[in-house]
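As promised in the previous annual report, we have extended the structural survey to additional targets. Below is the entry for YitT family protein.
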Amino acid sequence: MKISKFKEYIVITLGIALVAFAIEYFQAPNNIAAGGVTGIAIILNAVIPSLSIGIVSLVLNVLLFIVAIIFIDGKFGVKTIYASVGLSLIIWVIEEFLKPVAITNDLMMATIFGALISAFGMAIVFNENASTGGTDILAKMLNIFFHIDIGKAILAVDFLITLVSALVFGVDVALYSMLSIILLGIIIDRVIEGFNVCKSIFIVSKKSEEISRYIIDTLDRGCTFLKGVGAYTGKESDILYAVLSRNQFIKLKKYIKEVDPEAFITVGEVHEVLGEGFNDIK
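The corresponding C-alpha cell record, generated without further manual editing, is:
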C-alpha cells in the first residue's frame, strides 16, 4: 500500500513539473496568462517584476484554501494540497536557480506548446484524483453564492483573468491567453480519456468456459456470461462479456486464437470504467 501511495506522488510530481516547465519556458516569458492562479501570478509579476511567480502562486493558493475553509467548508485531499503547493515550489526553484528564458518568442508556438505540455501535466495530476487547486475555489464560491454552474464559473474566472491580461499586456497577447485556456480544456479531456481507454469485449465461443477462466485466473479480471439465442440456428449460446485494458486484450486475443480460432468477437472502446478493479464510483 505504501509503495502504491509513493508511486502516486511520484506521478503527481511528474505532472506538476511538466506544468511548471510549460509556465516558465513558454507562457510566463511571453506574458501568456492562461487563467488560474499562475495566470494571476504572471500578471502581477509583469506589474511588479520583483514578485516571484512561484511565491505569488503559493501565497494565493494558501489564501484561497483559507477562504474555502471559512466560506465553503473546503475539504481538500492531501494530494490536492501537495500538488498545488508543490507546483508553486517547483516554479520558484526554476526561477531561483535555473533563470529560465523563453524557448520560443513566437506567440502562437508558445501558446500551442505551452498548452500541450501544461495540459498533459495537469491530466496526469487529475488522473491521480488530485488537482492544482487555485481558481477552482473561486469558481466554487460563485456556484454557492450566485448559483452559477461550476463550468461556467470557471470560464468566468478565467475570462476575468484574461480581461486583466488585456489591460496589462494588450489585446493581442490576451487573445493568445484565451486560446491557451481553450486548448487546455480540450487537450486535458482528450489526454485523460486516453489514459482510461479500455476495451469492451463480447465473445461467442464454444470454449467460453475456458476463456472465462483465462480472463479470471490469468488476466485477473472479472467477466459475465449473458444468455443468447442464435437468430439463424435458434440454439442457445453463452455470450462472454468483459472489459480489459489494451495489453490484456492483446493477450486474450492471442489465447482465443489458440483455443478457438472460430470464435466470434466484437470489440469497442470505452473511455471510463467505474467499479471493482477500475476507478471508484465518486
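The chain has ten helices and four strands. The first helix runs from residue 2 to 27. These points will be discussed at the next consortium meeting with the crystallography subgroup.
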